[in-house]
Amino acid sequence: MDQAHGDADMNDTRRGLVAVTGATGFVGRHTVRELLGRGWRVRALTRTPGKAARVLPGDAIGAGRLEVVEGEALGEGVADRLLNGADACVNLIGIIREAGGGQSFERVHTRTTRAMVRACEKAGVSRFVQMSALGVSDEADSGYARSKWGAERAVRASSLTWTVLRPGLIHGRDGEFMQEAKGWCEGRSFPHVVIPYFTRLDPEWAPPKPPKFIDPVVAPVRVEDVAWAIGESLEREAAAMEVYNLVGPERVSVKQMLTELRDALPLGKKLPVVGLPGSVAAMKARAAAAIGLRDALPFDEGMARMGSRDSVAALDKASAHLSFQPAPYTETMRAYAPSM
Q: For the chain, which domains are there?
């Protein structure tokens, strides 16, 4: 069930212009549509204009309600063009894995956020919504989580009126994870004969007993609900200077989540869902990176470590401040799986 718009502090006639970074990404494209539906005008930043034409609503561009800015956030003059005349900024730039061409966690998450914060302060854009993630910390054992924490610190230290959102596993028909999992379930993607996920060693295990591994538990949150929360964060005074966890109401093991997806897909094969020790996978990924084979595996060290942990959180504050009532995973997934 879709959430209705809450008792926002603004009405449609007062809403202005929101700049959105990462606008053509999974969360970004849904956020753009959500904001347009609320009556905002949107200026969307994208590095790939061809993708913008495919995934963003062309009718809104034609009507002058959506403007696309091409470039990279750290590019000379790009942030100034994006933020000129804007009333708010939603920063959704992020990567799950490092790549060539300067796509490092520190650069994409921390440096870019610092630059966007400074540009907003310079342009007089006071309202700022930052997309973070569950489990961020300066002591985290993944570069992803540490860099996301660095980005949060930059936002918190600014003069802006900010809101930080920390989603868990985000799911949806066009999401990167669900599309990758679809490939596993249909036997099209490596490893082809099983559907893999990461597990962790039971902390109570001790030799000489055989090792016991635990399946991580997740509370997948629907992408439309994340976009809705972004809209509410912009429009509710109670959301100022607050941090919110965003997860779904249904807690499932990763094995159960993948099994449900496999069985809901029209072309899903009855492949076994097999857990792989995350600590072992992390060591293999580290070794591969050390000898210049970082991209030889379909995951990196941080993905293996994060994927073996639970991704759940309390929703009390998001529910109280934003009236956040997300949809459950299984019912929602079964509705969109046939059209994936």
A: 17-168+222-247+313-327 (3.40.50.720), 176-215+253-307 (no CATH)
